[in-house]
Amino acid sequence: MADSLTTLSTTLTKIIMPIIITIGVIGNILNIIILTRPTLRHHPCSYYFLALGFNDLFYCVSLIYSLLTHGYQIHPEYSSLFWCKVLFTIASLLPFISAYLIVLASVDRFCASSTNARLRNWNNTVVARSAILIMITFWCLFHINTLVLCELNFADYIGCGIRLKTLYNQILTIIEAVLFAILAPCLMALFGMLTILNTKQVRLLPKAKSSYRRTEGQLIRMLLIQVATYLVLNIPLCVTY
Questions:
Q1: Which residues pair with 153 in a beta bridge?
Q2: Enclosing H/E stretch for 152
Q3: What distance in Å separates the CA atoms of residue 97 and residue 94, rounded to the nearest whole number?
């Protein structure tokens, strides 16, 4: 029975994973092309979506590693400790960056739709670029722990990974789970709902040009769809994280 399930899982991985990678790569390339249009350069939220597009494109390409590992039992990370650390860290880092880019976009849409002028002042391209840079730098520094603690050892079933043999490793794993599986979805849901409330209470950017206002509304809808999709697809994963 176990062998049959393993064979089925391997077969499905070989069939489904290439489709996911192909659709993901094409979709993110199209997103990048659209978001680099001159008409969107003045919209801060487009910067978050553009960064998300590049990050997700990189992540989709990195899924080839998962295809090789789970579909064909080819383990590039086993070739050396260097590749073990690099591949494991990338696989851990990119989902965090994606999640918190959506969080930043949610905060941006909340500020843009607010009746408070001080909050609306945070909705600008300078803040967007700075926030993206700070956030990516923070998560890269945070995952230095992953890079250092990751080990390659064939003495157990883990192979390449972080072993929970010390209190520090256990605490780090718990912190990662809280930040990814609890905090990020909660922030997305919170600011998503606040944005919806804001747009119901006031007319979005009443003094702006109609074309600008229309684009802002489209960006809000894009964000809400992104948040809803993330929550639906990732909550089961977060529960088992």
A1: 159
A2: strand 151-153
A3: 5
Q: Which residue stretches of the chain are H helix?
A: 2-35, 44-66, 72, 81-112, 117-121, 125-142, 144-149, 167-177, 184-201, 210-239
Q: In angstroms, rounded to a whole number, what is the distance separating the alpha carbons of residues 53 and 77? A: 26
Q: How many residues make up the chain in this entry?
A: 241
Record the pTM: 0.87
Question: In angstroms, how far apart are the furthest CA atoms of the chain?
Answer: 66
At the second CATH level, the architecture of 2-239 is Up-down Bundle (1.20)
Question: Encoding tokens for residue 160?
Answer: 């390449």
Sequence letter at residue 71: G
The rounded distance, in Å, linking the Cα atoms of 85 and 98 is: 20
Q: Identify the residue whose tokens are 């794993």.
A: 173
Domain limits, the chain:
2-239
pLDDT tens for residues 55-85? 999 999 988 888 888 778 887 877 788 888 9
Euclidean distance between CA atoms 223 and 169, whole angstroms? 35
Q: How confident is the model at residue 41 (pLDDT cuts 50, 70, 90)?
A: confident
The DSSP result for 52-101, as a single string, is: HHHHHHHHHHHHHHHIIIIIH---GGGS-HHHHHHHHHHHHHHHHHHHHH
Amino acid occupying residue 207: K
